[in-house]
Every structure is written in structure tokens, then in C-alpha cells.
Amino acid sequence: MNNLLRSLILLLAMSLSGCGYNTLQSTDEQIKASWGEVLNQYQRRADLIPNLVNVVKGFAAQEKEVLLGVTNARSRVGSIQATPELFNDPEAFAKFQSAQGELSSALSRLLVVVEKYPELKSNANFRELQAQLEGTENRIAVARNRYIKAVQEYNIVVRSFPTNLTAMLFGYKVKPSLTVDDEKAISTAPKVEFGKP
């Protein structure tokens, strides 16, 4: 009887090793880690914004609408609970992405406005904050890319045979990836017009 039990345990262990459960676990954990890094970089950007707005406000108080746009966009981002479960809820995930996109747009408008104020562009505090913001935007891009790759790897495991059977058995589902809000707009080349001297 003892040998039969050992044989059954050995057979069960061998069958489970090929079922993909461990691969599902490791790829799911990679998604969580990658998503945590995305959130970390978004938080870094959100933390920089009040200082940036205050510096710009001191030089360009008449740009109230742009400054309010950045502040309001940051508030919308902050109002969304960025939990690890967020990427399992497609609707909440889309809202989060949309809010981050609005914040990116508002920051872009702010940086365009800054071009009108040479004294602001030469301010040491502003230059430091702008450099930190640019570095953070680069970190966001890298973190998003890692997340996208982790989701891609996970989704391949969830959809591939025979691991798709294990995924169905344990409730693993395809996860959403990060997307661009307006893919058509980014595929159109920008118009460049040179003004007359």
C-alpha cells in the first residue's frame, strides 16, 4: 500500500509539473511587479507636479487656465485607487489609463506655455523640476514597456495549450495591456511650419 501511495504521489507530481501552474504563478507575479513599477513612476510624476505648478505660477500667473488644468488632472489621477487588482478590472483600468493620459496632456500644455516666458525657462528651480519631470517621463515609458511585455508573456501562457486548461481550472484570465488613447493621432505625422523671420 505504501508503494502504491508513493507511486500515485510521484505520478501526480509529474503530471502537475507539465500543467503550467508554476508558469502561470511566475508570470502573474511578474505582471504585479511590473505594474507596481508603473504606479511608482506615476506617483513620482504626481509628486513633482505641485512644485512645478508653483514655480510656473510665480512667473506666469496669467496662465491660470493651464495651471488649473494640470492641478485638476493630477486630482483625477489621485482619486483613482491604484491597487494591484486594478488591472483585473478592465473598466477601472481604462479609467486609470484615461486619467494618466489627461495628466500627460495637461503637462504638455504647461510646458508649451513655458516657452513664452524666457525668465521662467532660465530659473534654476524650474530647470531642475523640468529635468526631473523629463527623467520621470522616461522612467514611465520604460516601466510601461516592461509591464506590456509581462502581460504579453502571461497572456501567451493563458492562451496556449495545455496551460490554458490549467488557467481555466484556476480562474486565470487574459489581462489588459496598456494602450495609447488615440492611436490614429500618433500615427499621423506632425505638421511642421516655419514662421517668417
From TrEMBL:
Endpoints of the signal sequence: 1-22
Residues that span the membrane, as ranges: none
GO terms for cellular component: membrane
Intracellular or extracellular location(s): Membrane
Keywords noted in UniProt: Coiled coil, Membrane, Signal, Transmembrane, Transmembrane helix
Membrane disposition: Single-pass membrane protein
Domain of life: Bacteria
Pfam families the UniProt entry points to: LemA
PROSITE patterns: PROKAR_LIPOPROTEIN
Coiled coil ranges: 126-153
InterPro entries found in the cross-reference section: LemA-like_dom_sf (IPR023353), MamQ_LemA (IPR007156)
Annotated PANTHER family: MEMBRANE PROTEIN, PROTEIN LEMA
Family in the record: Belongs to the LemA family.
Protein name according to UniProt: LemA protein
Source species of the chain: Nitrosospira multiformis
